[in-house]
Write a structure and sequence with these properties.
binds iron/sulfur cluster; 4-stranded antiparallel β-sheet; Tyrosyl-Transfer RNA Synthetase; Rossmann fold; 8-stranded mixed β-sheet; alpha/beta; 3 domains
Length: 437
């Protein structure tokens, strides 16, 4: 079980992928490799659920959306930046972006007053989003506490999940307070509500793997509100299947009409199986079929939610070796740290170096466990060849940690100075990003 509120094990990725059915994220399938963030190139984003419909939209130049949450529990640090790097990339392909400030969740799980959450969200997060180059077109930040559709949807979604399921997913016990238990439904409301505004549309949610329980719940909930299922049967036939018991004949008729518009001519309708087989369709057609059926559902007055997709990134190790955390300032570089603060933290950061310089020259260092190396790789050095050189020199014992830290500090100071400058330049845009509805 992964607990999204306290998960900290960062090294068990392949186990998690096997255990929970997370698929490998392959950036080679995305267009324009030169535009990809280093998180993709370096396989720091390593997994996904249901990303294929989003990929299809990117390839076809069609609309899709990104949803991200912002838990205002402290200042924004480099770990949080990983999501923004992805958002900026997807924005380049025309994605609509929704960022929900989880102020209600923060109140329920961390006792954070709404006013404090608002202040943190705007001044520590949104200011930095702007400085990181998020475009204002099609981007909105909203507050859970103020967006009525999200709260209403959370309540409606709650009809399809019971306590034992919530316990199995999250490990809730008899002493878990009800506000905390309700917060995953709020998250599901956040993730699905763009489809209330835009109609059925692929939505991708970039998250750390600790958030996977929310994604599994949300995908199950989206599916439980559907009238149709487009799938391949165990004997290899492709078809649309009605999931409800009432009005089956009429729904099959409408499904056939919608699929005919996709160009299929041949159908085999079997009402007693609630099935519409499409002999001319293949597995690769299922995404388009599902999208067409979801529109039929909206015409029927239903939601027609497409299952949200997710990408999963590795955690960045904190400078002290534990998880980077806003509540432990020494573990993290905050985006509004001064260059001097950043330098002081980096000087103290743990490395993958050996006890003595002599031993390091002989055995080489271990960049894979070095927070200095990983900070450069994830955030500070965009040149892949430079990082390959640093890694090779480290492993060969040609590089010692003192000099290496000095180099990293140079990059860090330039980054933090750049952030300050860009925050000052973009501050006037703040109000345009934040929505109070
Ligand atoms: Fe890390 Fe650099 Fe030391 Fe290698 S030489 S362990 S990369 S600080």
């Amino acid at each position: 079980m992964i607990d999204p509120w306290s998960y900290s094990d960062t090294d068990e990725y392949s186990h998690l992928m096997d255990e929970f059915g997370i698929e490998v994220f392959d950036p080679d399938r995305l267009p324009d490799p030169e535009k990809q963030p280093r998180l993709f190139r370096q396989r720091i984003v390593f997994g996904h659920r249901g990303f294929q419909p989003v990929l299809r939209r990117i390839e076809r130049g069609e609309p899709f959306a990104i949803m991200s949450g912002l838990m205002p529990s402290g200042r924004m640090h480099l770990g949080h930046k990983m999501v923004i790097d992805q958002i900026r990339y997807f924005q380049g392909y025309g994605a609509r972006v929704f960022v929900g400030v989880a102020d209600l969740e923060s109140l329920a799980t961390r006792n954070m007053p709404l006013s404090r959450a608002r202040d943190l969200a705007i001044n520590s997060y949104v200011r930095n989003y702007l400085a990181l180059g998020i475009g204002i077109e099609g981007f909105e930040v909203y507050f859970q506490s103020l967006r009525r559709e999200v709260k209403d949807l959370a309540l409606i979604l709650g009809r399809k999940v019971n306590l034992s399921t919530m316990r199995a997913i999250y490990g809730f016990t008899d002493s878990t307070n009800l506000g905390h238990m309700y917060s995953p439904l709020l998250q599901a409301g956040d993730i699905l509500h763009p489809q209330l505004k835009l109609g059925p549309i692929p939505v991708v949610v970039p998250v750390g793997v600790d958030q996977d329980p929310h994604m599994r719940l949300c995908r199950d909930l989206s599916s439980s509100f559907r009238l149709f299922n487009a799938t391949e049967t165990s004997d290899g036939r492709i078809g649309a299947f009605v999931k409800v018991d009432d009005g089956v004949d009429g729904l099959l008729e409408k499904a056939e009409g919608a699929l005919r518009e996709l160009g299929y001519l041949d159908f085999k309708r079997i009402p007693r199986y609630k099935a519409l087989y499409v002999p001319g369709a293949s597995r690769g057609d299922l995404i388009a079929m599902d999208e067409a059926l979801s529109k039929v559902e909206v015409d029927e007055g239903e939601y027609g939610f497409l299952p949200p997709a997710s990408t999963y990134h590795r955690f960045i190790k904190g400078l002290t070796g534990e998880k980077m955390s806003s509540s432990k300032p020494e573990t993290a570089i905050f985006l509004d740290d001064t260059p001097e603060e950043g330098e002081r933290k980096m000087k103290k950061a743990i490395t993958g170096g050996r006890e003595t310089a002599q031993e390091q020259r002989k055995k080489g260092g271990r960049p894979e466990v070095c927070s200095v190396y990983l900070t450069m790789l994830y955030h500070l050095v965009d040149d892949d060849r430079e990082m390959e050189r640093i890694e090779a020199e480290c492993r060969a014992g040609e590089r010692l940690c003192g000099g290496c830290k000095k180099e990293a500090i140079g990059h860090l100071r330039a980054f933090l100075e750049g952030m300050k400058e860009k925050r000052d330049q973009t501050e006037h845009l703040l109000e345009e990003f934040v929505r109070d509805d």
